[in-house]
Amino acid sequence: MLADAVESAGVTGAVNRRRDDEGDFLELRLIGSRRLPFALTTEAAAAWLEATGIDATVDYRDVYLVISLRDERTVDRLVERLLRPFMYAEAVCERLGDALAPPHRLHPQLSLPDSGSLVLALRDSEALGAAVRLGALLGAGDIGEGLKLHRPGGMRKLAARMRLLLTGALGRGVRVLAEPGCAHEQDELSIHLTVEQGLRLAGRIAAESVRAEQEEPPFPVEETRIPPIWISSDP
Q1: Over the stretch 76-107, which tens digit does the pLDDT of each residue have?
Q2: In the β-sheet with 187-194, what is the strand arrangement from edge to edge?
Q3: Which residues of 215-227 are buried (b: 16+ CB within 10 A; e: fewer)?
């Protein structure tokens, strides 16, 4: 369970079972500082463990920072306090990516600056066509109308429209930035959300998809040919 939680949270570490004179225990070997709320030092880790009420020991072993856990309750508390926030955020990213990519031809790059923030980046070389499709998916089919999206000014105006659209759908605090590309980089529209807003966006997209499916006719509509009507000029 601990190893799965470490992987799900995106923390760079490994879990091993060990035994000493006091019995069996688990050691969490931290290989890097990615997504940790403390510096990769024994002092910083020990201070964080004490502040969060986790009864574990920490030391350096084989150039790794190692947290030793002696009982199930301690493991549960470590998972809850250290790993659960990023586990939840990663699950939201996966749900949002699944909602966007296969059915809508949108393949965003999703990242987590921290456990409470999410960035959705849409990149393409087609005048931000992916961002326009996202706007249409949310009910604003004309979001790119009148804008020269191959120019920086048009991209910035699209970002402003997208911010208003998403604020109405998800609440305040949405940031949208446009970054023109170059010879080696594609144009990019990045949407900055809270993780909870990302979850609401995934739900909104899923609901729009279901509604679109329900509005489709259940069978192909055959074309009906109306015969021409000839009007005679004779009295």
Answers
A1: 999 999 999 999 999 999 999 988 876 677 88
A2: 109-114, 117-124, 187-194, 175-179
A3: eeeeeeeeeeeee
